[in-house]
Amino acid sequence: MLRQLCTTLKVLTAALFLSLSCTPENNGGAASRPYYLGLTPFPFDILEIENVYYVYDKIETDADLIAHHFDNGIPWDEALAGTDHTTYPDKVQGDWYFRKTHTPAGHKVYVAVTPLNGMRNDLAPIWNTTGDNQPLTGTDWDGLAFNNANVKTAYLNYCISIIEYFDPDYFAFGVEVNLLRHQNESEWSAYVELHVATYNALKERYPDLPLFVTLTGGDLVDDYSECDHAGQMAALGDIMDYTDYFAISIHPFFAEIPGASIPADMFDKIFSLNTGHKPACITETSFPAEVLIMTAYDPDITFAGTPEKQVEYFNLLLNESEDLNLVFVVNFLVRDYDVLWATTLGAPEDINKAWRDTGLYDEDGDARPVLDVWKTYLARPVR
To answer: Is residue 327 included in any domain, yes or no?
Structure first.
């Protein structure tokens, strides 16, 4: 999540004041739902362990799917040597163990990994004994292409290792991969080679496991972002035979101009691109419930979120997800990360701040009005 998007490149030109172009009728009274409702354990605070536990407790009560989203590097050296996770750095093993032992019993499990870095323009950083997101500079991995033999071997081994460890119900082997086509087009063909090789090897080994990559939905639609539409359609064509699901990441408060609205047909336009009629899902989404200002840009960037707009978006989202018969929908944040921002992330006031106020709970742990919408749908059994 906390990374640059194509749509961000346009929003940096102006303040943003969003309103929804429709207020859909709440369909929460239906007897059932087709999709699981998921949350990630992204923490609002990492200094107090009780606050980390809090997030998992809320996932147990407020979701029926947990999304373990790994967008923080790869233990490249150890993964090149094999698939045995016990040889991975202690920081990797510790993180995996904590996640697995705190995953609520009975919840569906979605695991996402990616060979891309946070900017979606190069190879993922290293996760080693120092920590995650360590630079490739000065290592054997610096400057390697996605189709390098060692990269292909290490990445496949990493995918196998994490699948064997978590035994997920759904597995993404790439996150927002279409952005690479925009951010670093020269690397796209090499990525496609890695993508195809990884998919084919994993599908042979795990024929019943849904394997897919995620795509930024707003960047696939013409005029929704500055991404070249023809290039995005070419990228989609390159990978659609090698993904089991049409899996979308969407954070619609990024827009081109002040006063921009979320079109009522946004989801229809995005999912109409699923021409192969594959199962579909929303792997991450969010909407702000507070006004937020990012001062790292000139001029400042303002997101004019409100609790009411957040409710409107989630009514639209969950109604449309019903009509589209989605497999699952993941809201990224449980609780606003004001504490994490103040103690760990808080400078500069850049794009990493954008999602701070998108939780189902505010910074004090008080339920937002959107939680009632979420729980109304959650109360319906999955059909």
So the answer is: yes
Tokens of 124: 């993922």
Read off the pTM: 0.93
Six-digit token pair at 223? 């005029």
Length of the chain, please? 383
Where does residue 178 rank: exposed (0-12), middle (13-18), buried (19+ CB within 10 A)? buried
> Tokens standing for 119?
């900017």
Helix axes 307-323, 369-378, angle to 10 degrees: 20
- Distance (Å, whole) CA 352 – CA 354: 6
User: 382 and 30 in contact (C-beta within 8 Å)?
Assistant: no
Q: Using one digit for the tens of pLDDT, what is the confidence trace for 110-132?
A: 999 999 999 999 999 999 999 99
**Mean pLDDT, range 226-238, rounded to an integer:** 96
Residue 63: inside a domain: yes
Q: To 5 degrees, how large is the angle CA 288–CA 262–CA 303?
A: 35
| CATH number of the domain that residue 141 is part of | 3.20.20.80
Task: Note whether 325 and 277 are within 8 A (CB).
Answer: no
Q: What is the predicted pLDDT for the residue at 302?
A: 86
Contact 255, 18 (CB under 8 A): yes
101: number of Cβ within 10 Å: 8
Domain span at residue 273? 6-378
Domain count along the chain:
1
Do residues 171 and 107 lie in contact, with contact meaning Cβ atoms separated by under 8 Å? no
Strand, helix or coil at 181?
Answer: helix
Which parts of 74-219 are beta strand (E)? 108-112, 170-172, 211-212, 214-216
Residue 383 lies in a domain: no
Domain annotation covers residue 1: no
